[in-house]
Amino acid sequence: MEKLYEIVFNRDRWTELMEVMKERGIELPWGADDEEAEAGESGAESESGEEREFGIPEAQITTTVDVAAWHEQKRASMDCHKTQRQDLGWLLDLPPDLAARATTPEYFVLTRLRDREVPDGYRETSVF
């Protein structure tokens, strides 16, 4: 194996998306509004604090791949099976501009290179 990647979610971009959703009055997925309210009321982090720390910081992402040209096909593929709606319904119901922000670009972390360490600060725009 020449390279090994892990797909990741960009925490910084996810946080921005959630803020815009709140501003527009769009319900956050997985009851995120309720969790934030509970954490704020008690002053402590809720048990589901992990979900608020969803993804990893952009600074740790090594690979960002622009897939915007395939956004509509990606969205259509998520919507072609009824069972996808239970997990992805919120995403499929977003306005087109926010749906595009939620699904593009794709983020990865290069975790292994053959015969050498992944250099600190390594960045690329393709997995090939």
**DSSP helical segment count:** 6
Average pLDDT confidence is: 85
Unreliable stretches covering 5 or more consecutive residues: 37-51
- Overall outline: globular
| Residue share in β-strands | 5-15%
N-to-C order of helices and strands:
EHHHEHHHE
The neighbouring-strand order within the major sheet is 1-3-2
Question: Whole-Å distance between the termini?
Answer: 13 Å
For the secondary structure, the number of strands is 3
Q: Main beta sheet, described?
A: 3 strands, antiparallel
> Taking Cα atoms only, what radius of gyration do you get, to the nearest Å?
17 Å
Would you tell me the structural class of the helices and strands? alpha+beta
Instruction: State the share of residues found in helices, binned by percent.
Output: 40-55%
Compile the SSE list and pairings:
Elements: E1 3-8, H1 11-23, H2 32-42, H3 49-52, E2 63-65, H4 71-78, H5 82-92, H6 96-103, E3 106-113
Antiparallel strand pairs: 1-3, 2-3
